[in-house]
Each structure stands twice: as structure tokens, then as C-alpha cells.
Design a protein that fits this description.
Strand content: 15-25%
Radius of gyration: 24 Å
Number of domains: 2
Distance between the termini: 24 Å
Low-confidence stretches: none
Oligomer: single chain
Helix content: 25-40%
Mean pLDDT: 76
Number of helices: 5
Largest sheet: 4 strands, antiparallel
Structural class: alpha+beta
Shape: rod-shaped
Length: 145
Amino acid sequence: MEGSLKGHEERGLTPSLEAQSVILNQIQPFDGGALQLYGVHQLDITDKHLVLIPTSNAMTIKKMVFSNGATLTNIRISNFGNDPGNAAIGLGPSQSAKLYGDPKETFEISFGEGQPFEGESILPKLALLSRNVTLALDLLEGCLA
């Protein structure tokens, strides 16, 4: 952090002492910092395709009627990973089924192994980071008044 401030100083962009205090003590733009903004920096310099990994998907079906007349109700189908062998229900080539109850597939996308925010669900984390960026800007704006 000291090197970053020195670089800004050399370019005549030194933040006020109050701004420096807010940056170091409240925003904490380093690994483990309160607002977790260092992870945003890490994501910015990382290949994004390695960061987001679908971890599971699931579907809830109110009723399923098979071509042979058999019926299943209130089914939750899940498939963890991309291996078709993990599917909860499989139909042969000559089989068919009709789904009832407006089934909708759900899934979760998480940050990948070894990446910032590893294993955390991306949507809630991005919402939190968005709030944290707004908070950081508000804190810095208070230094300009």
C-alpha cells in the first residue's frame, strides 16, 4: 500500500491525510479488507472464464406422466456436475414423458477454485460488492467536503 501512495505522490496525486486514513482504515483495499474490494481487483486481472463455474442444477416437477402411463408427482431432479451419469432420472431412446406444473430449472454459479471468493455464489456476492463499492465512494466523497 505504501508503494502505491508513493507512486501517486510522485505524480502529484497524493490523497489528503483524511482520505489516506479512510482508505487504509475503512475501505481497506487489501486482501482480507473489510469491504472485500481487493477480490474485485483480483477478478479484474484473472481470466473470467476460470472464475465462474456452474456447480449444480435442479428442477422441481409437480407431475410427470410417462408414455407407459406411469405417473410420478412432486419430483426434484438434480444433476451435480456435467457427467450424464449423475442424472437423477434417465429415459431410454423409445421413452417419453410429459411434464406438468410449469417446471423451472434452477442453478447456482459460484466462483471457481483458487479464485477470489472461492465457492461463494456469484449473484449474492456481486450484490454485496456493489454495495461495498458505493460505500467506499461515499466514504471518499466525505473527504472532499
